[in-house]
Amino acid sequence: MSLQFHTVPVTPFQQNCTLLWCENSKRAAVVDPGGDLEKILAAVDERGLQLEKILLTHGHLDHVGGTAALARQLQLPVEGPHRDDEFWIAQLPVQAQMFGFPPAETFTPDRWLAQGDTVTVGEETLEVHHCPGHTPGHVVFFHRAGKLALVGDVLFAGSIGRTDFPRGDHDTLIRSITEKLWPLGDDVRFIPGHGPMSSFGQERQSNPFVADKRFG
Ligand SMILES: [Zn+2]
Ligand SMILES: [Zn+2]
């Protein structure tokens, strides 16, 4: 496929910041720049890519903490998450203090995303799926041609996102996974916000929280 990716674990939470790029144009997006910008930019340079935007799955510090600085430094537009995560982004300085992170600046995305939107990376297009539950404004990016999804903290290999945060909701998260992600196909591989990749089919078989047999 002509959409390529490389993940760069960042922050003490080892968040999977992902570089997505279009092989034809070498234009790239950074998905969830939580921090460690020098690591991210080194990965960009190594591959001879040109960054054109920042994409965000949700408003948690470990996913967006480096956004304001990176956007300013390279004059990049910020797309996502859904507007329902505005309160999380507004609280970034507080989140940073709470978790002992370096001071994090708040910002305003250039574009809020909603269910059914699309975003582009070079000549490639990804679908936006609104998947609330972990946070109310969480979005998932899906590249249909490449059967690849970036799911943030919605779903992990063998687990699911926490729902004990303000405006988190377990049943809503389960519905997001089973009603929005599963229909995309068992053969879809996904990059989670933390930990190794997996596929929707694998999780439907063995994930203790959302395997099909739990609902049969
Ligand atoms: Zn999160
Ligand atoms: Zn996270």
TrEMBL record:
InterPro entries: MBL_Glyoxalase_II, Metallo-B-lactamas, RibonucZ/Hydroxyglut_hydro. Its cofactor is Zn(2+). Residues 196-216 are annotated as: Disordered. Pfam families: Lactamase_B. SMART domains: Lactamase_B. Signal peptide: none annotated. Gene3D superfamilies: Ribonuclease Z/Hydroxyacylglutathione hydrolase-like. Keywords: Hydrolase, Metal-binding, Zinc. GO terms for molecular function: hydrolase activity; metal ion binding. Residues 199-208 have a biased composition (Polar residues). This is MBL fold metallo-hydrolase.
